[in-house]
Design a protein that fits this description.
Number of strands: 24
Number of domains: 3
Shape: globular
Helix content: 25-40%
Protein name: ABC transporter substrate-binding protein
InterPro entries: Peptide/Ni-bd, SBP_5, SBP_5_dom
CATH superfamily of the largest domain: Dipeptide-binding Protein, Domain 3
Distance between the termini: 27 Å
Number of helices: 14
CATH class of the largest domain: Alpha Beta
Strand order of the largest sheet: 19-18-20-14-21
Pfam family, one: SBP_bac_5
Family: Belongs to the bacterial solute-binding protein 5 family.
Largest sheet: 5 strands, mixed
Keywords: Signal, Transport
C-alpha cells in the first residue's frame, strides 16, 4: 500500500511533513494499455485549499506540495513501491559519508536555462544552511552536509556517517539558478525542471500548468512525446467533497481524494482509485510539564482503556488497518511488517488502576481529581474530516466511564497552528505525522521544542529513544534499521504515540491513470479518454 505525505499540523497545517504496493479500487494505475491512452487535453486534479506561497523551500501545507510537485523534480524518483529510480541523476554511488550523483544529459529549466551539477550543489548547500531555514533543513539535510560540482557530477559529503544520505538529499526538490538567486521570486510562480510549467494563476480557484516540448529526462524514459500525456494540468480548488465527487462522475475532474460518504457513489459507478496509507487514528500527547499526559501512567491508562476495534472502525471510515510503522511516506525506510512492537489489549480495570496509581482518584461525583484539580483532557481533531468527530465521541464515552472530563475540540487550520505551536493548549487527539524515514520522525520526538525553535511540539523527553536515535543516525547501513526499529518500539512502549488504526485514503481516477508515490506524479499521468 502506498504511503502518503502529510496530514496537517501547524502553520495552517504542517506537512508532517509527504503500504508497500499500490492499492486500487478495481485495478492498479498501470492497468490501461498504451493503446487506450489518449494524448492531449487537460488533466484536472483537486486541491482542497489555495496553496498560497509557492516557494518550494518554504512550503508546508499538503495543498502547496500538491502544486509544487507538478513543476519541481529531484535527483531520485521514488516509485509507489519504494524503489529508487533515476530522475535528474542517471546514477549514483554512495558510502556512509559520501554520495556521488551523475546527472543526465540535456537538463534544462522551464525558463530555458541550463540545469547543471553546480545548480544541484548550490541547491543542497542552500538547504544545508541553517540561516535559510528551508523545509528540508533539520530533517534530511543540515550543516554537516556539503556539496561540490565538477562536470556532470555532484559530490555530497557528510561530516558524520549518514546511512540515508543518498535518498535524503536525492529527494529534495531542485530549483533553478534564478530561483536560488532570488527565492522570493518563487512565491507566485515556479522555476524548476519539471515536465509541466506554471503558466496561469487564479488564486483561490485554479493553477494551470502547461507541458513543455523539450523534456527528455523523466523517470522510466518519459519525454514530452510519451503517449497519453496531457497538454496541461489544472490544480483546481474544490473545498466541498461532494462537489468534487460530482465532478469526477461527470468527467470534469480526473483526480480527487475522497474519504467520506461520497465514496459509495464513486465505487458504485466503477471508478478506480489509488490509495495512500493514512494513520487516521494516530494519537499524540502533549507531555509539557503541568499537562496530564506528562505522566506516562496517564498515557498508558487512557490508551489501554480504548477499544481499538470499535474506535478504529469509526476513525478509519469502516476499513481499519493495523499500523505497522510510524514511518508512512515513501521511501518507507526501515519499515518492517509485522512491527517489532505491539499495542496493549483493551482493559478498563487496568486503566482505572493506573489512574489510581498516578494519583487521580475517583470522587463521590464520579469524577477523577488530584490535589483538588479535575482530570480534564482536551481532545483535538480536524473539523473537516468526517470520521474524526464520531470517533472522538467514542473516546469520550470510554473515558467518561473512568471519571475523566473530556473536552472535544474541532480544529480549523488556524486553531491547529495556535494550539500546537503557540499556546500548547491541547492534550491529545487525532494528530498525524507522515514521515518517510525514521530520521525525519525523530525531528518531532527527539528534537527541540517550538520554544527552542524545533518541531517537538509534544515536548517528548524520552532518554532511551534519544540514545537510540543518536546510535542509529551514525550506524552503518547494515545496522541502522535495527536500531531505528528499536527506537520506534521505545516510543510505542512509553506511550509517546499511540497508532490506534490506519486506513487507506483513496484518490479516485476518472478519465486518466497515474502513479501516486506520495502526491500525484505528473510524468506518470496517462489520459484515457
Amino acid at each position: 500500500m502506498q504511503r502518503s505525505i502529510a496530514v496537517p499540523v501547524g502553520a495552517g497545517f504542517l506537512a508532517l511533513a509527504l503500504a508497500l504496493t499500490s492499492c486500487s479500487g478495481s485495478s492498479e494505475p498501470s492497468a490501461s494499455s498504451e493503446a487506450e491512452y489518449v494524448s492531449g487535453g487537460t488533466f484536472v486534479t483537486r486541491i482542497t485549499d489555495d496553496p498560497g506561497d509557492l516557494n518550494p523551500m518554504k512550503a508546508i501545507s499538503p495543498d502547496t506540495w500538491s502544486v509544487l510537485t507538478l513543476a519541481y523534480e529531484s535527483l531520485i524518483y521514488v516509485s509507489p513501491d519504494g524503489e529508487l529510480k533515476p530522475w535528474l541523476a542517471q546514477e549514483w554511488t554512495e558510502t556512509g559519508t559520501e554520495v556521488v550523483f551523475t546527472l543526465k544529459e540535456g537538463l534544462t529549466c522551464a525558463d530555458g536555462s541550463e540545469f547543471t551539477a553546480q545548480t544541484v550543489a548550490d541547491n543542497l548547500n542552500y538547504n544545508a544552511d541553517p540561516d535559510n531555514a528551508t523545509f528540508s533543513y533539520g530533517s534530511v539535510i543540515d550543516e554537516t552536509v556539503s556539496a561540490t560540482a565538477e562536470g556532470d557530477q555532484v559530490t555530497v559529503t557528510s561530516e558524520t556517517n549518514s546511512p540515508f544520505l543518498a535518498v535524503n538529499v536525492g529527494t529534495i526538490l531542485m530549483v533553478c539558478d534564478a530561483g536560488l538567486a532570488d527565492p522570493e521570486s518563487m512565491s507566485d510562480t515556479t522555476n524548476g525542471t519539471g515536465l509541466f510549467d506554471l503558466t496561469d494563476v487564479r488564486p483561490g480557484d485554479t493553477y494551470t500548468f502547461t507541458k513543455r516540448d523539450d523534456y527528455t529526462w523523466g523517470p522510466d524514459d518519459v519525454t514530452s512525446e510519451t503517449v497519453g500525456l496531457p497538454d496541461s494540468i489544472e490544480a483546481r480548488v474544490v473545498t466541498d467533497e461532494s462537489t468534487a465527487a460530482n465532478l469526477l462522475l461527470s468527467g470534469e475532474m480526473n483526480a480527487a481524494a475522497i474519504s467520506g460518504a461520497d465514496r459509495t457513489r464513486l465505487d458504485g459507478a466503477g471508478l478506480e482509485f489509488t490509495g495512500t496509507r493514512n494513520p487516521a487514528g494516530m494519537m499524540l500527547f502533549n507531555e509539557k510539564e503541568g499537562r496530564p499526559f506528562s505522566d506516562p501512567l496517564v498515557r498508558e491508562a487512557l490508551t489501554t482503556a480504548l477499544d481499538r476495534e470499535e474506535v478504529g472502525t469509526v476513525v478509519a471510515d469502516g476499513d481499519p488497518l493495523e499500523s505497522i510503522s510510524l514511518v508512512t511516506k515513501n521511501p518507507l525506510l526501515c519499515v518492517v511488517d509485522p512491527p517489532a512492537w505491539s499495542l496493549p489489549d483493551t482493559d478498563l480495570d487496568r486503566a482505572a488502576a493506573l489512574l489510581d496509581e498516578a494519583g487521580w482518584t475517583l470522587g463521590a461525583d464520579g469524577k477523577r481529581s488530584k490535589n483538588g484539580e479535575p482530570l480534564t483532557i482536551k481532545f483535538v481533531y480536524n473539523a473537516p474530516t468526517s470520521t474524526h468527530a464520531p470517533a472522538a465521541e467514542l473516546v469520550k464515552q470510554t473515558w467518561d466511564q473512568l471519571g475523566v472530563t473530556t473536552e472535544l475540540v474541532a480544529n480549523d487550520a488556524a486553531a491547529w497552528s495556535e494550539q500546537l505551536w503557540s499556546t500548547f493548549d491541547w492534550d491529545t487527539g487525532w494528530i498525524v505525522l507522515l514521515p518517510g524515514s525514521p530520521l525525519v520522525l525523530s525531528t518531532f520526538f527527539a528534537g527541540g521544542t517550538p520554544e527552542e525553535g524545533g518541531l517537538n511540539f509534544m515536548f517528548v523527553d524520552n532518554e532511551e529513544y534519544n540514545t537510540l536515535v543518536s546510535e542509529a543516525s551514525s550506524a552503518t547501513p547494515e545496522d541502522t534499521c535495527g536500531l531505528w526499529q528499536q527506537a520506534e518500539t521505545e516510543l510505542i512502549e512509553r506511550f509517546d504515540v499511540f497508532p490506534l488504526a490506519d486506513n487507506i485514503l483513496p484518490t479516485y481516477q476518472s478519465g486518466a491513470v497515474f502513479e501516486q508515490p506520495n502526491g500525484i506524479q505528473p510524468t506518470s499521468i496517462r489520459m484515457t479518454n
